[in-house]
Amino acid sequence: MSNTKVLTPKEVLPTPNSENYFSQSSTSSSYSDSSENSSTSSEDSESESYSESTSDSSEASSSSTSKDESDSSQENSESKESGEGSDLTQNQEIKELGNLISFPVSGTEFVIDQKYKYMKKIGQGAYGIVISAKDTTTKDKVAIKKIIGVFDRLTDAKRTLREIKLLKHFNHENILCLKDVMIPPLKEKFTSVYLVTELLATDLRQIINSEQELSEDHVRYFLYQILCALKYLHSGNVIHRDLKPGNILLNENCDLKVCDFGLARISDPEEENPLLTQYVATRWYRSPEIILGWGEYTSSVDVWSAGCIFGEILNRSPLFPGKDFLDQLELITKIVGKPSKKEINTLQNKRARRYMKNLPNKKKADYSKIFYNASEEALDLLNKMLQFNPQKRISVDDALNHPFLEPIFDNDDIQLCKENFNFSFEKDKLTKRKLRKLIYDEIVEFANNKEISKNDDL
């Protein structure tokens, strides 16, 4: 990454939104009882249930709690840095099981490699539990997630498989990658999966909603890293599809990593997108073509999401906090303008065409009156990223070469994925037994490759 770095004082970073270290949907579509009990007919609609019940509400309420979170984060950081002890009570002793250790976390038994020293629980939901730990061999701090009930539902198991495959496949400094796994002791009967990644201080959502001052240099550096990550993903034929501030992790030096790939897909999906369909991404960051079913979507959906995040960092509030799908479209057209009649007529869905034609005619808003502290170059790039028509939207390549990012652009930062990700397993009819074998094989393969790499370094 470029030598132009923007340092952020560690003491003002909020508490990490730790559930985002891995796919939030990998084992459950929602934290809320109402969403968990509702019946859904597809993988996408289950994920939408999660997004509506947790992500949107957390976006709206996080600003009121961010200061308290920041204060508690500082206290926890100070105590952990000084002693690095765990939050286990005297009655919760760590048991040794050969080269493994076992200990309870919120009523759930964790069984991990003995090289990890448990520090504290940092996240919990229906999907599982995330803890922080210290690797005593490398002295690195890591996040360890135990995914519980992996095979309770086939869609959950499939998402877990997808997430593991993607985490294994990626190798980029702006993408959260897999550091370690725990091989299940019982190949035919395991129900939980442990995944290890590096531990980062916070996420972008909490930074936006905190009192942390953000200069244009901060904004530039954040956007630059997001675009570098997207360039890498798209070069591997992968669309993230769920890019939002909560899925962007940060450390104290503002180094950024995109996470949560449980909903990622191939860049040319063959799936229907009817008007107002239940879709996977959090509504506020969803592109118009997804909402309206504007033909097959492309990697430009991620550019729209990145543009929404860009504008949110500038304004310190979400650009399009729609209450529902219709409200979402109205909010979008108020800022980016209503598309032309010619563009509306290209919509494949009749309901979509009818709805868009009936919307009031609105021109693009004056961005300088909305983002009054932003430079002309920043506003120009934002405008190009938030084009209603995906064919007019700026590409990731052109965005990276935009004058706004010129001060920190370094061609050496642009990395391409070595090979396209293989999504062929998505088309297979996978049973629970087959999924268990595939997940086990992926875990063992990663562990073996890691051991080979370790021996090569000796």
TrEMBL record:
Catalytic activity of the protein: L-threonyl-[protein] + ATP = O-phospho-L-threonyl-[protein] + ADP + H(+)
Protein kinase domain: residues covered: 116-405
GO MF, one annotated term: MAP kinase activity
Region (Disordered) residue spans: 1-88
The EC number(s) this enzyme carries: 2.7.11.24
The UniProt record lists the keyword ATP-binding: yes
CDD domains: STKc_MAPK
Keywords: ATP-binding, Kinase, Magnesium, Nucleotide-binding, Serine/threonine-protein kinase, Transferase
UniProt cofactor(s): Mg(2+)
Binding-site list for ATP: K146
SUPFAM superfamilies found in the cross-reference section: Protein kinase-like (PK-like) (SSF56112)
Pfam families from the UniProt entry: Pkinase (PF00069)
Activity regulation, free text: Activated by threonine and tyrosine phosphorylation.
Family, per entry: Belongs to the protein kinase superfamily. Ser/Thr protein kinase family. MAP kinase subfamily.
Protein name: Mitogen-activated protein kinase
Organism the protein comes from: Anaeramoeba flamelloides
